[in-house]
Amino acid sequence: MRSTSHSPGAHPGSVSGWDPTNLPPLTGRRVLVTGGNAGLGYFACEQLAAAGASVVMASRNSEKAGRAIGAIRARHPRADVTFQPLDLADLSSVRTAAAAIAEGPPLSGLLANAGVVGSAERRSTSDGFELQFGTNHLGHYALIALLLPTLAASGTRIVHLGSISHRWARLTPSALQPSTYRNGRAYATSKLAVMAFGFELARRLALTTSAATSVVAHPGFALGMFTPERPGIDAHRPAASWKRRVMEPVAQGKDHGAWPLVRAAVDAGVPNGAYCGPDGWFQLKGRPGLVPAKPAARESNAASRLIELSASLTDVPLRF
Fold first, then answer.
1. Which residues of the chain are modeled with pLDDT < 50?
2. Residue 222: DSSP 8-state
3. Which of helix, strand or coil describes residue 34?
4. 225: which DSSP letter?
């Protein structure tokens, strides 16, 4: 998986030879997917398992994970999918999961997919952090930081789930620890934090000549109304035909939204530090390609301050 760092100024585009509907054999690959029991995470697990990867589905709900694993095996009877308990909104759960994962077979990929999307009122994690920032960023930061020695030894590809919403956020101290709560701002800030960490991690991994790599990916505008049904899986949302007609030009299903995530996790042609997403208009839908991120996501000083804050809040330092 080791490759040179992706330059922010490099021309984005598709890497030739990649067909998301016909993945190359992934036998021998072991990929951990957080939040794999629903939505994008489920379809990433399904696609990886269908290609022969050994998938570790990390989720806080064993019953939902069991249904998801059953749905995958109903389509692919020989699928190798196992369950790992993990609640990213509880740092004690993150520590327990990290210890268990480190003791298991090496990971070729870690897809940090799980997250909270929207909360009308401010809610908190078990450790008192705002739920979206605490789950989407801090939980994954702690998991990756705790596992980093193991990931480096294995040359693991780490994939962080970004979002087009990062375009409307900034990593200022007041945004990271606001005095008042606003739902949309909290989500966008959490996703910018995820991306800034992913890109800065890539830079530091390259500087330390680590065998691990870090890539950010996003699903575009992925909606349940265009997502195929899977028994027992929370991903499909029926919609009136007029809504489908209106949204079809700018949206896609979560199965297609998982394509950039999977590509980022397993395609050696995607370089360290890259941003993978749909290659269509405004990155809303399309084939999985290399796409540009806003400069704020690649600002190293802001990302370094974020990492210092994250280490302080979680009591988990980032060591290389």
1. 1-12, 14-15
2. B
3. strand
4. G
CA–CA gap between residue 71 and residue 93 (Å, rounded): 26
**Using only C-alpha atoms, what is the Rg of the chain?**
18
State whether the Cα torsion 213-132-255-244 is positive or negative. negative
Please tell me the pTM assigned to this model.
Answer: 0.93
In whole angstroms, give the CA distance from residue 162 to residue 192: 7
Percentage of the chain with pLDDT > 90?
A: 79
Residue 187 annotated in active site: yes
Encoded tokens for 266 = 């397993």
For 84-123, the pLDDT digits (tens) are 999 999 999 999 999 999 999 999 999 999 999 877 889 9
Q: How many CB atoms lie within 10 A of CB 82?
A: 14
CA dihedral over 53, 54, 56, 61, signed as positive or negative: positive
Domains in the chain (CATH in brackets) are 30-314 (3.40.50.720)
Is residue 307 a contact partner of residue 188, using CB atoms and an 8 Å limit?
Answer: no
User: Can you tell me the distance from the alpha carbon of 260 to that of 252, in angstroms, rounded to the nearest whole number?
Assistant: 13
Distance of CA 104 to the CA centre of its chain: 21
Which residue type occupies 312? S
pLDDT for res 4 = 38
| Type of residue at 255 | D
Give me 4's structure tokens: 């040179």
42, 141, 181, 187: the active-site residue: 187
Query: Quick one: how far is CA 159 from the chain centroid?
Result: 5
The label of the residue with tokens 């999977």 reads 262
